[in-house]
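hey can u run this one w/ iron/sulfur cluster bound, need the structure tokens asap thx
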Amino acid sequence: MKVVEIFDSIQGEGDYMGVMCTFVRFAGCNLKCPFCDEASKYDKAKEMTIEQIVERCKQKIVVLTGGEPTIQPELKTLVKALHTAYHHVHIETNGTNDIDYFVDWVTCSPKAPKYKCECLHNEVKLVVSKDLTLKQALAHAGGQHIWLQPCDGPYLEQSKKKILKWIKKYPDLFRAGIQLHKYYEVI
Ligand code: SF4
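ok here u go:
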């Protein structure tokens, strides 16, 4: 499997914000978002076996992220191996691929132009970019709250204002997110 890095840190986003986890970051994605800061890390990816990955996972919760982890052909086998080793497995996905096996927690962060979650998920995280409309955000309403994340870069201030406006309008649906790991200056 193509692994960029494995590290322990606090989860910076979503319902598990602030919880210590082991992160396994895979190389490669099937999308090309203009604000993506992950692609520059893919060059340092190493090929690792499932056994080598499991060996490096020290925390109870293991977060499989990327890039887009679901494009790794052996992901299902890795999830099973982590469960066998008594870990809880979380996946962070852009939602373009189905996940047809048990995972403890799935965070779906759908991206432009479709902003669609094709997989079953536990929480939705939307990066509030210039292009994201309220109608597209509301399309994810379905009995769960939706985390709204400000978009880094030149649109940041407008993004924060947009989030506050939407939350005032739909207080039971939206939650204002932050990247807590950046506040604590950790990865
Ligand atoms: S889905 Fe995520 S990893 Fe893939 S290009 Fe977009 S921001 Fe980057």
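The chain has five helices and nine strands. anyway lmk if its weird
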